[in-house]
Amino acid sequence: MHDIDVVVIGAGAAGVAAARRLMTAQIPAVVLEARRRIGGRAWTLRAPSGLALDLGCGWLHSADQNEWAAIAPTLGLTVDPTPPPWGGRGRRTIGFPSTAQEAFRAASERFFARIDAAADDPVDRPASDFLEPGSPWNPLLNAVGNYISGGELDCVSARDLAVYRDTGVNWRVTEGYGALIEAYAAPLDVRLDCPVTLIDHSGPLLRIATPRGDISARAAIVAVPASILAGGSLRFAPALPDKIAAADALPLGLADKLFLRADAPDDLPIESRLFGALDQSSTGSYHLRPFGRPVVECYFAGRLAWELEREGDGAFARVAVDQLANHLGHDIRKRLHPIAATAWGRDPHALGSYSYARPGQTDARRVLAAPVDDRLFFAGEACSTQDYSTAHGAYRTGVAAADSVAGLLKK
Ligand SMILES: Cc1cc2nc3c(=O)[nH]c(=O)nc-3n(C[C@H](O)[C@H](O)[C@H](O)COP(=O)(O)OP(=O)(O)OC[C@H]3O[C@@H](n4cnc5c(N)ncnc54)[C@H](O)[C@@H]3O)c2cc1C
């Protein structure tokens, strides 16, 4: 370990974007990463069959303005513009009669319109306050809220949801979103398996402590998940109680994926969707044959995902196969084979999937992102006020932090 101008902590989307920006500005930097791989919550698994499976982020949200979508072709990767199965009319949801689907869509539009209208209310409230009392669609709206936030609607700030920015355009990277972020990191000096445990900012230089030794630096960009700061595995000396309180106000909700290989898949409509249940919030959402592949991508979120993670191996597959068999018939059971499942809540370097703000806590994103003494900078999806929970939001916070560092070091 040696001394350097800037240490970037965390090689996820934010840390990689920050380090690439520093590289362009010709500022020497090293990236310290706790895991043995680059990408953090962006992680493409290459299955033995050659399929690229995104275990973390998969969709280039707001793709028409998403920097990663512009970067992908420069690295020889392919952006696929096929719209998602949840987007817009005309997309197919199996087992959901069209009149009921229309009624749900209308209920959903009314719900989100009420949330948007409340953005400037003096008091921020839980998103669940905006459900129509007694509506039969409330359980499914809560399920969708879980997919969006990873948390139950009664735990999530309505104002935070209202200010989220979404152009409604969603694309994918054929080779994988995780593979894209990893490829973008290729020219960087990244030290893997190097968790930072302490940032001592009491002296003239920062001292960054890791089990592999200490590094001194003029500045640091802390690009770890909010959950890591709130959980205390990375500490500051002197302590930064406001920062930790902000991180605690932005918990990581949970979303987990399971990929099933489907034998003889031709009867499963390509790029279609299915909800396990329409009348419960504890339901998986199933994307059949993404990219036309012989795969079902299963999505579980919120309380259900926490419960299934606790239950352990095979729990996601058990629920998924049961719910799919309810719709597609008993025979589907023997045609579905688990390939990979995540447990982001148990992952010690993530402790969840993406951040939401607790009711009344939207300002925590600004507090989390604020620099300390013009040498400790913060990045990561949770620091983004409008693009939080996304990989492009993480990118933008990383670039902003790097620009601040560059401005100061070049003075
Ligand atoms: C299942 C799932 C689906 C998702 N779907 C989408 C999607 O479709 N589209 C989208 O845009 N986003 C999606 N996301 C969210 C997206 O993946 C994240 O918002 C984004 O990748 C976060 O990037 P980040 O750099 O802020 O954090 P991370 O990717 O978590 O990077 C932080 C890095 O810090 C490292 N770290 C932690 N502690 C330490 C330490 N002490 N020292 C050093 N390093 C440390 C971690 O290992 C990690 O590599 C999804 C996430 C999940 C889990």
Q: Could you walk me through the main structural features you see in this protein, from its secondary elements to its overall organization?
A:
The protein is of the alpha/beta class and 411 residues long. The chain is 31% helix and 20% strand. It has twelve helices and 21 strands. It has helices at 13-24, 67-74, 98-117, 138-149, 158-163, 177-184, 226-231, 241-248, 302-311, 315-328, 364-369, 391-409; strands spanning 4-9, 29-32, 44-46, 52-54, 59-60, 79-80, 93-94, 171-173, 190-191, 198-200, 206-210, 213-222, 235-237, 252-253, 255-262, 272-275, 285-288, 295-301, 336-341, 354-355, 376-378. Strands 1, 2, 9, 10, 11, 12, 13 and 21 form an eight-stranded mixed β-sheet that branches. Helix 1 runs parallel beside helix 12 (391-409). The longest helix is centred in the N-terminal third of the chain and has 20 residues, at 98-117. It starts with a strand and ends with a helix. The mean pLDDT is 96.
Which secondary structure elements does this structure contain, and how are they paired or packed?
Blueprint lengths: L3 E6 L3 H12 L4 E4 L11 E3 L5 E3 L4 E2 L6 H8 L4 E2 L12 E2 L3 H20 L20 H12 L8 H6 L7 E3 L3 H8 L5 E2 L6 E3 L5 E5 L2 E10 L3 H6 L3 E3 L3 H8 L3 E2 L1 E8 L9 E4 L9 E4 L6 E7 H10 L3 H14 L7 E6 L12 E2 L8 H6 L6 E3 L12 H19 L2
Parallel strand pairs: 1-2, 1-12, 2-9, 7-16, 10-13, 12-21
Antiparallel strand pairs: 3-4, 5-8, 6-8, 10-11, 11-12, 14-20, 15-18, 15-19, 16-17, 17-18
